[in-house]
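Hi R.,

As promised on Friday, here is the backbone we talked about, encoded as structure tokens. Could you run it through your design pipeline when you get a chance and send me back a sequence?
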């Protein structure tokens, strides 16, 4: 079995923070896959029409509190939480320092692998399939809370924030802007895997986050401006575990000792049915998730390479071309989604505005975004993620061997191309079927007339079938670095 060590990976990494395996031809004909997947999504819709009438059943379920188990009660102890958060801040500092003082080669520096593979890809999976871990380990939140505790030791107000009134019209627009910048860095910026650039970007974002917390308060900025709290929070609505904190009658002081915490099990994706309609800015943020991961996948195909070659006769600036591609993809997703929201209004014959329908149903797209995230990034996580093992022993590239793992050899056979292909197909199919189910459930609650609810879903079904086909087409294309 060919298992090259970390050195052999250096030739596979380019200016994009991802690298792809060699071109792979799916074991089944593409047309058969597309027709079968589209048929499965349509069939699921038909089944829902005839057999799913009680829309409250999925969100009204017996609750089991995991906090009753000794393990979770132990984790919730203050000293254990402090150790976990201390470790999170320690990793944060290591990543930032490694970019500035460590090796400039991304292969020998922990920053690129940790940020793009372990944190961005890995934590997204944890958020969606386990629960909202980010709320516990967010280093920007932790450091700001520590500053508040230090201030309280000197007899001052335990808040270091000015607590200015957050403009209600601003909503989550700061997070939308920050995510657009993040998506551009991830998919376009040539320095996205340069360690020093990564650390500089982290510092700039840290300043923005802490200034926002200082001006408007920690919780206010986390709800509106800290983009990763919002993104991981959206994904965690899909997860089977969710937490609740209920202040007791004696808890008017707001101390943690007066807050009763619960950690409930729930059916997968049921949390997406508990969300009220989103604002326009939240709607655009969710659409950005879907648009940017789709563009990321498309840029690895030969079709996009052909587009780049064609456009290079007008401009040889590949960054400009990729920026244009990203912007066009985002605009297309926005226009298409709101156009289908208008079609939903027309099909239902109801008085709801197209904007109201767009913001009400947008959370049903989260399983689709997650499914494509799995299809596009799973191989990246399983293969490239293994490099964190030797990097943990030598994070700065100083020839250390702290944990005696620097000689670890990456196992490229850990996940075969057929496994990757099968997982991608299944994840996209399941994600779209769940989205159809959620959309149907919301429609049945929203519209008083059963016939209006069903008619409203025809455009949504067409949209989801179309994206199913587009997603499968992208992941079945030969991928190039």
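Update: got your reply. Pasting your designed sequence below so it's all in one thread:
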């Amino acid at each position: 079995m060919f298992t090259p060590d970390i050195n052999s990976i250096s030739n596979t990494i380019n200016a994009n923070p991802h690298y792809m395996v060699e071109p792979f031809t799916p074991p089944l004909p593409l047309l058969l896959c597309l027709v079968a997947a589209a048929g499965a999504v349509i069939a699921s819709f038909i089944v829902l029409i005839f057999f799913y009438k009680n829309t409250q059943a999925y969100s009204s379920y017996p609750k089991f509190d995991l906090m009753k188990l000794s393990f979770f009660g132990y984790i919730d102890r203050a000293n254990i939480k402090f150790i976990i958060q201390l470790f999170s801040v320690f990793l944060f500092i290591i990543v930032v320092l490694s970019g500035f003082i460590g090796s400039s080669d991304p292969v020998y520096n922990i920053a690129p692998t940790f940020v793009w593979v372990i944190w961005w890809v890995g934590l997204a999976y944890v958020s969606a399939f386990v629960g909202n871990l980010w709320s516990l380990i967010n280093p920007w939140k932790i450091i700001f809370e520590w500053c508040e505790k230090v201030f309280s030791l000197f007899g001052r107000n335990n808040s270091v924030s000015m607590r200015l009134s957050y403009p209600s019209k601003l909503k989550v627009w700061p997070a939308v802007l920050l995510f657009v910048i993040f998506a551009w860095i991830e998919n376009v910026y040539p320095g996205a895997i340069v360690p020093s650039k990564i650390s500089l970007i982290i510092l700039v974002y840290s300043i923005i986050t802490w200034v926002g917390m200082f001006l408007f308060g920690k919780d206010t900025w986390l709800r509106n401006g800290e983009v990763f709290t919002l993104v991981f929070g959206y994904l965690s609505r899909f997860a089977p575990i969710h937490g609740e904190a209920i202040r007791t009658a004696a808890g008017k002081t707001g101390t943690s000792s007066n807050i009763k915490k619960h950690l409930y099990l729930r059916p997968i994706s049921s949390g997406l049915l508990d969300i009220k309609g989103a604002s326009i800015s939240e709607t655009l943020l969710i659409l950005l998730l879907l648009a940017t991961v789709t563009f990321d996948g498309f840029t690895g195909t030969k079709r996009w390479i052909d587009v780049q070659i064609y456009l290079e006769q007008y401009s040889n600036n590949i960054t400009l071309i990729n920026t244009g591609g990203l912007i066009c993809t985002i605009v297309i997703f926005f226009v298409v989604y709101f156009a289908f929201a208008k079609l939903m209004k027309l099909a239902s014959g109801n008085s709801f505005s197209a904007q109201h329908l767009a913001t009400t149903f947008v959370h049903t797209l989260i399983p689709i975004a997650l499914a494509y995230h799995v299809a596009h990034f799973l191989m990246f996580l399983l293969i490239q993620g293994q490099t964190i093992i030797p990097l943990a022993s030598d994070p700065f590239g100083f020839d250390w061997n702290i944990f005696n793992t620097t000689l670890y050899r990456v196992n490229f056979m850990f996940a075969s191309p057929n496994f990757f292909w099968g997982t991608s197909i299944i994840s996209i199919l399941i994600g779209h079927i769940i989205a159809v189910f959620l959309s149907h459930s919301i429609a049945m609650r929203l519209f008083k007339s059963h016939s209006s609810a069903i008619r409203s879903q025809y455009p949504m079904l067409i949209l989801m079938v179309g994206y199913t086909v587009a997603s499968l087409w992208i992941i079945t294309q030969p991928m190039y670095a």
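One thing I noticed while checking it: The two ends are 23 Å apart (CA to CA).

Thanks again,
M.
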